[in-house]
């Protein structure tokens, strides 16, 4: 069983930056592909970014060039640095873990989820 705990959310202004962290426990961190998803009010949860155990990354078009995902094995933590934030980035951001080496952008393909952290971007 893998536990994921997100942190780093908050209220920022458009154009600001924010870094989210996701600390994992209870499993072999290197065995999982890690991802970030988000869910805005009234909308479905959507893929944001993912990183494989080997360091390969993949981003949603809406955040490409603004968000950077990384992972630190020694700390069992995955990060996403969000630059040039926009009001449409406002959502609850969830960390997800998927066993194996293949990245998936599908919500239903993730094996574990964190509880989420709120990011609000004001205009």
Radius of gyration: 13 Å
Tell me the β content. Answer: over 45%
Helix segment count? 0
Q: Given the C-alpha coordinates, what overall shape results? A: globular
What portion of residues is helical?
under 10%
Give the SSE order as H and E letters.
Answer: EEEEEEEEEEE
Q: What gap, in angstroms, lies between the N and C termini?
A: 40 Å
Nearest-integer average pLDDT: 96
DSSP E strands, number: 11
Structural class: mainly beta
User: Can you tell me the residue ranges where pLDDT is under 50 for at least 5 consecutive residues?
Assistant: none
Largest sheet: 7 strands, mixed
What can you tell me about this protein's structure?
With 123 residues, the protein is mainly β. The chain has strands at residues 3-7, 10-13, 18-25, 32-39, 46-51, 57-59, 67-72, 77-82, 91-99, 112-113, 117-122. The strands form two sheets. Strands 2, 4, 5, 6, 9, 10 and 11 form a seven-stranded mixed beta sheet that branches. Strand 4 (32-39) and strand 5 form a beta hairpin. The radius of gyration is 13 Å and the shape is globular. The termini are far apart. The mean pLDDT is 96.
């Amino acid at each position: 069983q893998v536990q994921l705990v997100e942190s780093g959310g908050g209220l920022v202004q458009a154009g600001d930056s924010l870094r989210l962290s996701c600390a994992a426990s209870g499993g072999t961190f290197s065995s999982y592909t890690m991802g970030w998803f988000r869910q805005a009010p009234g909308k479905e949860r959507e893929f944001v970014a993912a990183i494989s155990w080997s360091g390969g990354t993949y981003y949603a078009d809406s955040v490409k060039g603004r968000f950077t995902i990384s992972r630190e094995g020694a700390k069992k933590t995955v990060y996403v640095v969000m630059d040039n934030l926009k009001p449409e980035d406002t959502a609850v951001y969830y960390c997800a873990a998927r066993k194996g080496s293949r990245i998936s952008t599908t919500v239903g393909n993730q094996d574990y989820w964190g509880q989420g952290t709120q990011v609000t971007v004001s205009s």
